[in-house]
Amino acid sequence: MPEGGRLTIRTLSTEDQIKIIVQDSGSGIPKEHRDKVFEPFFSTKEVGKGTGLGLAVSYGIVKMHNGAISFESNDDRAAGATGTTFTVSLPR
């Protein structure tokens, strides 16, 4: 969030699983990029500013622990507040 914003981290717990929810108030992920966010080396950052491995590695770690990772995002101010929420679910 280059222009600042809010980052919220929450946890939820049930008998069977733990959820970690990370929400930001950034600009959101454009629709044309949403299918690629977990692909290795996919990045919208300029060269030298990121490798595009963070979410791919996170996806792999979560899957190795029999979990799931998903996200919701809004990049359209006309549709409401912008931002992205990632949810990681892990078995207890």
Describe this structure in words.
By secondary structure, the chain is mainly beta. The protein has one domain: 2-Layer Sandwich (Heat Shock Protein 90), CATH 3.30.565. The chain contains 1 helix and 4 strands, in the order E-E-H-E-E. The protein has one helix at residues 54-64; strands at residues 7-13, 17-24, 68-74, 83-91.
Short description:
With 92 residues, this protein is mostly beta strands. It has one helix at 54-64, and strands spanning 7-13, 17-24, 68-74, 83-91. The protein is globular.
Descriptive labels:
92 residues; mainly beta; Heat Shock Protein 90; four-stranded antiparallel sheet; 1 helix; 4 strands
In DSSP terms (H or I, runs of 4 or more residues), the helix count works out at: 1
The overall strand count is: 4
Described by strand count, sense and barrel closure, the largest sheet is:
4 strands, antiparallel
Query: Which class in CATH terms?
Result: Alpha Beta
Number of folding domains? 1
Helix/strand-derived class?
A: mainly beta
Fold topology:
Layout: E1 7-13, E2 17-24, H1 54-64, E3 68-74, E4 83-91
Antiparallel strand pairs: 1-2, 2-4, 3-4
